[in-house]
Design a protein that fits this description.
Elements (H helix, E strand, L loop, with lengths): L13 H15 L13 E10 L3 E10 L5 E10 L9 H14 L7 E5 L11 H9 L3 E5 L17 E6 L2 E7 L8 E7 L3 H11 L7 H17 L1
Parallel strand pairs: 1-4, 4-5
Antiparallel strand pairs: 1-2, 2-3, 5-8, 6-7, 7-8
Helix pairs in contact: 2-3
Length: about 230
């Protein structure tokens, strides 16, 4: 929730805010939530990390599915093109993520994003944002909730409870290991909640986080040290 409670940034330029809001409204109309028709053989995980205020580093990890063997690791870093604006973080992260994605030799059937899909105030988290840009099935696996209410799922692995916002289920709160904090799984684009939850659980083989996003997060830190 720190995402929405940061007061150390200046108020956004009204013209920028207006433009981004218009873009979000247009993108909202393009979101498709559906059971995917792919045969899932390649899955990618992605994550971004900021280096100071001016530089962003984005990572894509490509894995086989269901074996989850790492096939490719790519990354890209560059200048941040947009100031921090609450609710519009995807616009800040997406350009660099797309440049990292271009470096993959093989393209995934599904992208699992360290972040939110439709479990966002305007249903446009970074997973949804990427899915629309790439016209690819995407899903979000987030560590913290942005919006909505839920009942804590049972403490056992595989337990699920719905995350509800404005009378709509926007994510599943999924316990990937016994007695650990749950993750928040949501469809991004060209994906449905049931399949996203199933895939997230199948990829959480040893740790709390599913392997695609866990490895993306890990290598973001590794490559970040190289840039520094």
């Amino acid at each position: 929730m720190a995402y929405y409670n940061r007061f150390d940034y200046p108020a956004p330029d009204p013209a920028i805010l207006k433009k981004l809001t218009e873009q979000q409204n247009e993108m909202q109309q393009q979101v498709i939530i559906q059971k995917p028709d792919f045969e899932l053989k390649l899955i990618a995980g992605c994550d971004s990390s900021f280096i100071g205020e001016d530089t962003i580093l984005s990572v894509f990890i490509l894995l086989s599915y269901p074996k989850l063997e790492v096939l490719e690791k790519v990354w890209h870093h560059g200048p941040v093109e947009l100031p921090y604006i609450p609710g519009f973080l995807a616009f800040r992260e997406a350009p660099n993520l797309l440049k990292a994605y271009e470096k993959l030799q093989q393209k995934p059937d599904l992208i699992m994003v360290d972040g939110h899909g439709i479990s966002h105030p305007r249903k446009l988290g970074i997973a949804t944002h990427l899915g629309i840009h790439l016209n690819k099935p995407t899903m979000g696996v987030a560590k913290k909730v942005l919006v909505g209410k839920y009942t804590e799922p049972a403490a056992t692995k595989g337990s699920v409870s719905p995350l509800v916002y404005k009378n709509e289920v926007i994510a599943n709160v999924l316990r990937t290991r016994d007695n650990v904090k749950p993750v928040f799984v949501s469809p991004g684009h060209l994906m449905d909640l049931a399949t996203a939850t199933e895939v997230a659980m199948a990829c959480a083989v040893k740790y709390k986080l599913p392997e695609p996003t866990r490895l993306a997060d890990h290598y973001a830190a590794v490559f970040k040290s190289e840039v520094k």
